[in-house]
C-alpha cells in the first residue's frame, strides 16, 4: 500500500491515536516523522518500531505558531518532500460552562485548531509537498457533531477544525491535495486516563454498552487514517468520516 518514499508527518506521535498511526504506517512500508513534546515517549516509540524509516521532531505546536511552516520546510529538506500530514495532537478540557475562562478556550484552540492551520500552511507549500497525491487528515471528534455535557470548548474546537478542513479541501484541490477529517468516538488512550475522575470504570462501561460496536482502540482509528492517506482514497476529499463504532447514532 505504501513505499518508503511516501513520507508522512504525524503530530501527537508520542501517544494514543497518533502513536498507533505511526505504527500502522511504518508496518505498511511508509516513512514517518513523528512530532510531539515528549522526547522520552518518542524515543521509546523509535526503539519499539526499530525502523530506519521512523524519525521524530520535538515541538510544542501551541507555541510559536508562525514558525510551524518553517519546521515543515526544514524537515522536507532534511528527509525529502512530504506525501501527507496527520494532525492528531490535541487536548481535551472537561468543564461546566460557568467555569470557563478565556485561557481554557485559548489553550484548546491553539493546539486543536490554530496549529492545524499552520501545519496545513506548511505542507501546502509546493517546496514541501509531493504535489498531486498529497493528503492531509485532521483528527477531529464526534464531539464536533454530537452534544455532550462539559465539553463545549472542545466541541467548538473540533467543529472549527472540520470547517477549516472543508474550505481547505476546496482551496487545495487544484494542486491535487486532498483534505479530510476523521471523527473518532470514545477511544481508550492517555487522554481518557487523564480524566479518570470523570471517565471512571462505570462511565466507560456505560459508553461501551451505548456504542453499537463498543469502545474503540487506537488501531481502529489508525487503519482508516492510512486509507485516507493512500492512493485508494484518491477521489475522496472534504469528508468527515465517523470512526466510532456507531457511537454517533
Ligand atoms: N481518545 C479519544 O477518545 C478521542 C476521541 C475523539 C477524538 N480524539 C482526538 O484524537 C487526537 C489524539 O488523542 P489521543 O486520545 O490519542 O490523546 P493522547 O493520548 O493524550 O495524545 C495526545 C497527543 O498530542 C500531543 N500534544 C498535545 N499537546 C501538544 C502540543 N502543544 N504540542 C505538540 N504535541 C502535543 C501529545 O504529545 P506530548 O504530550 O508528548 O506533546 C500526545 O502525543 C486528539 O486530537 C483528540 O482530540 C480522541
Automatic annotation (TrEMBL):
Keywords: Oxidoreductase
Pfam families named in the record: adh_short_C2
Keyword Amino-acid biosynthesis in annotation: no
Listed GO MF terms: oxidoreductase activity, acting on the CH-OH group of donors, NAD or NADP as acceptor; quinone binding
Protein's name according to its UniProt entry: 3-oxoacyl-ACP reductase
Organism ancestry: Bacteria, Pseudomonadati, Pseudomonadota, Gammaproteobacteria, Thiotrichales
Organism: Candidatus Thiomargarita nelsonii
Homology family: Belongs to the short-chain dehydrogenases/reductases (SDR) family.
One of the GO biological process terms: fatty acid biosynthetic process
